[in-house]
Design brief:
The complex is a heterodimer. By secondary structure, chain A is an alpha+beta fold. Chain A has helices spanning about 5-10, 60-75, 80, 85-90, 100, 105-120, and strands at about 25-30, 35-45, 50-55, 170, 180. Classes of the chains: A alpha+beta, B alpha/beta.
């Protein structure tokens, strides 16, 4: 099995699925090109996440990650929620397949986007920071240790421009900073058009 | 839990008759067919007997069969080997956009040797139009490859028509018939092809037994150099047990073919009708009529394929999907995208391919189990939520 028992449990019995019509903050990441879309809804009371719901379009990992994040964040302060990282979520799930780390493990990003949305709404007059809710809130590209296409290890490569295993040429997406197939018209991670 | 395996395209259960035929070659009949002693020569007889049986399955002559280790190897040998053999004439190959990756990537790898590859587009049901192939041909074209049947959407291509127009221009033509041989009636003479790939594991032979049909007189540059096995066209000690198992499986497949096609076609239609009645926003991918008899493929809107595959697996039902998330490469099926489907729809790919043993009870169990799975996943899908909102206004 490619997934841990914990991933399969969260996939089969996801916690906190749904929407909150009166949400204090909503965050969305992903798009259908990369396969996964997550929407998080949060209610905030006394600086804590009193309720949290999510909807996810995506693979088993994406659904499990969303469920895990909702469980980790519920009842936590906004600061604690912001400290949850995608890496911690994957760890909590007992690990994810390498190739899924790059596309399906966006739950923390969606949660952070919801918190930022809440903060922007609850602090009127403050100009919305541009980086508040990007499509993928990674900021800069993460340390890529395996090819997102064939899963082959990329350590020791002097310049990350192609995978020695599957031969795919990479290009850094100008929008989200992830590595994606140079031959594609759009970024596999965020769907942004790639310059030819 | 009772398992219902509906992923024939990925592999079939070994036929007991094939297993029985193989066993002596995994035990006491260990001779190398190239050896001149008794141990070797008796094994050579078995290999040549299997060659005849595989040839009969597709209406070929035994010397026209080259054994390979997989359908992918047969495709590589044909595409690279035939193109390189025509290098003096030109450096252009034409393949359809929905070929198996072993044809597509073989064609792309020829670019390293100075070849140009043209991908012929398909229509919305995944069918290649012979006119489109004709338009792609140039004076430089040295190979055309169009598959006989597509394993992702079941489309059966007009191979005889494409072969005919290639023959008229003197261009060698190859077809990847891996998904078709054993299921559809296949006759290399009637098709008019110069080369054809097949794999025994698609018709209940063992994995590791496959073949390339190469019409007598067709030029080929070997891709594995070495000894004189397979007439010098594919070196390496024969995988005797696999070859013998494939031969016996070919014989069995041929005997029951027409009855099997009819039966599976009925079950396939039952599945398409049953799911169509119970699941909204269900897109049947591939052609309605020009379709593999055992093959039903869909895109379920607003949900993702891997999530459906895992959910069905938990219910004991094994299927496949062409969604990005269910592939190691995390790319949506090139076949679905070539048919013009958008990424979101292609993500909902699910493919059922029926076994010889599949029963009406199995199909009914799928029709019962699948709709609630779709419903559960849709309830948690933001795409479905957005669709419902848009349509309630």
């Amino acid at each position: 099995m490619i997934y841990t028992d914990k991933v399969m449990d969260h996939f089969a019995n996801p916690r906190n699925v749904g929407t909150l019509p009166d949400a204090d903050g909503v965050g969305q990441v992903g798009n259908p090109v990369c396969g996964d879309m997550m929407t998080f809804y949060i209610k905030v009371k006394d600086g804590r996440l009193s309720d949290i719901k999510f909807q996810t379009f995506g693979c088993g990992a994406a659904i499990a990650v969303s469920s895990m994040v909702s469980e980790m964040a519920k009842g936590k302060t906004l600061e604690e929620a912001m400290a949850i990282t995608n890496e911690k979520v994957a760890e909590e799930l007992g690990g994810l397949p390498k190739n899924k780390l790059h596309c399906s493990n966006l739950g923390a990003d969606a949660l952070h986007a919801a918190v930022e949305d809440y903060r922007a709404k609850s602090a009127p007059g403050v100009p919305k920071e541009k980086a508040a809710a990007p499509a993928h809130a990674h900021g800069e590209h993460e340390d890529v240790s395996s090819c997102p296409y064939c899963d082959g290890p990329l350590e020791g490569m002097e310049e990350l421009c192609s995978c020695a295993h599957c031969g795919i040429d990479f290009v850094e997406c100008p929008e989200c900073g992830k590595y994606t197939n140079k031959a594609d018209a759009v970024c596999a991670a965020c769907g942004a058009k790639l310059a030819k | 839990m009772r398992r219902i395996y509906l992923d024939r395209n990925a592999g079939t259960p070994l036929h007991p008759g094939a297993l029985e035929a193989m066993l002596p070659f995994l035990k006491e009949r260990y001779g190398n067919p190239q050896s001149l002693h008794g141990e070797g020569q008796s094994v050579l007889e078995a290999v040549e007997d299997a060659r005849g049986k595989v040839a009969r399955l597709i209406g070929a002559a035994a010397p026209e069969i080259i054994f390979t280790a997989s359908g992918s190897e047969a495709n590589n040998l044909a595409v690279k080997g035939m193109a390189l053999a025509g290098r003096a004439k030109g450096a252009h190959v034409v393949v359809s956009a929905v070929e198996h990756l072993s044809v597509l990537n073989a064609a792309k790898s020829l670019e390293k040797f100075g070849f140009r590859a043209t991908l012929v587009p398909v229509d919305g049901s995944g069918l290649v139009r012979p006119e489109s192939v004709e338009q792609a041909l140039t004076k430089e074209t040295v190979l055309v490859s169009v598959m006989l049947a597509n394993s992702e959407v079941g489309a059966v291509q007009p191979v005889a028509a494409v072969a005919k127009l290639c023959r008229a221009k003197g261009i060698p033509f190859h077809t990847d018939a891996v998904a078709a041989v054993g299921m559809l009636p296949v006759d290399v003479g009637a098709l008019g092809v110069d080369a054809l790939s097949l794999a025994g594991d698609q018709f209940r032979g063992p994995k590791g037994g496959a073949a390339l049909y190469l019409k007598k007189g067709t030029r080929l540059v070997p891709q594995i150099d070495g000894g004189i096995q397979e007439g010098g066209r594919r070196a390496g000690t024969e995988n005797v047990a696999a070859v013998v198992g494939m031969g016996r499986a070919a014989e069995i497949a041929l005997a029951g073919r027409a009855e099997r096609e009819l039966r599976l076609r009925g079950l396939r239609d039952r599945l398409i009708d049953g799911l169509g009645r119970r699941i909204e926003h269900l897109v049947v991918t591939g052609p309605k009529d020009e379709r593999l008899p055992h093959h039903a493929s869909f895109c379920v809107r607003f949900v993702e394929g891997e999530a459906m595959l895992l959910s069905l697996d938990m219910k004991g039902i094994a299927v496949s999907s062409g969604s990005a998330c269910s592939s190691k490469s995390l790319k949506a099926s090139h076949v679905l995208l070539a048919m013009g489907l958008d990424h979101a729809t292609a993500q909902g790919s699910v493919v059922f391919s029926l076994l010889d043993e599949t029963t009406a009870d199995d199909i009914d169990a799928v029709i019962e189990s699948f709709p609630p799975i779709v419903e559960r996943l849709r309830r948690m899908s933001p795409l479905y939520e957005a669709y419902l909102k848009e349509n309630s206004r």
